[in-house]
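Re: the 327-residue chain
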Amino acid sequence: MRGTARRIFSLISLGVAYVHLSVSDAVAQTYPDKPVRVLVGYTAGGATDFTARAVAQRLSELLGQQVIVVNVPGASGSIATARLAASPPDGYTLSFVTGADTIQVALRAKLPYDLERDTAPVSLIVTGAYALVVHPSVPAGNVRELIALARSHPRKLSYGSAGIGNSSHLAGELFNLLAKVSTVHVPYKGAAESVVATASGEVDMSYPSVSASLPLLNAGKLRALAVTSTKRASLLPSVPTLDEAGLPGYESSTWYGVSAPEGVSKDIVTRLNGAIARVVNTPAMKDAFGKQGLEPRTSSPDEFSALIHSEIAKNARLIRQAGVKAE
């Protein structure tokens, strides 16, 4: 009797598994059958918004359904991420996750979500660099001279950022730690305000995206001393990396990717991952991203998950060492 019961149980289990796989496969084949929303935690017009809209337009064409970008700005992207985490796991609400999301996890103890537990990474999209730019009046022609100036005048030089806990803020704190200097952080409401403040001389330096700094660099209102990535930026090929310029081991990059709510079907994640790879790695998209100082870099869901995990740990160490506090 016991052997018979076990065989019956096994047959039932196999049947349930088969039904589950059949339903899951059917969902993947029909997905999407209505518009898909992509949440962006920043205002329209910025690099994150540009990237999201470029990808969404091509995904709409490939998937046969509208992929609509919805801007949900505030708290360095965490408002949008909270909305994603609370959304039904059906694949019809996605979000653009950025490096700043991994900073918020390390910086804020009471977020209404757990980034790793409550979201399902789909794919990395692009990576990019920041530029270390100074106002033309700053008497430093290179990074070594800037470090010497900062050491000889502690807490006299100031740097602007897009806000407390933003990636550009941590780029400045990493500079302070590795260079053993103390430049003063001045937070602004966004990246545009920060770079304009540097061009006007309100602050001495900042770490805007390469594309955001280009117009002011070309106008002579800023000087670029270095870029923050491990290799030179294609838009600023003559500008060295901070590692090359006298700060060994420095690396601070920006990145954007797509995530879904936790619990979404793996088949839907696989379908989205493949579609994103096809869209992002086309010559036209590579060219469009290149003009923004961004480099296409798609990934598997597991690779993107591993990046998020490592970035949270890295940012937690930096925040602890620098003593950064949330607003």
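The mean pLDDT is 91.
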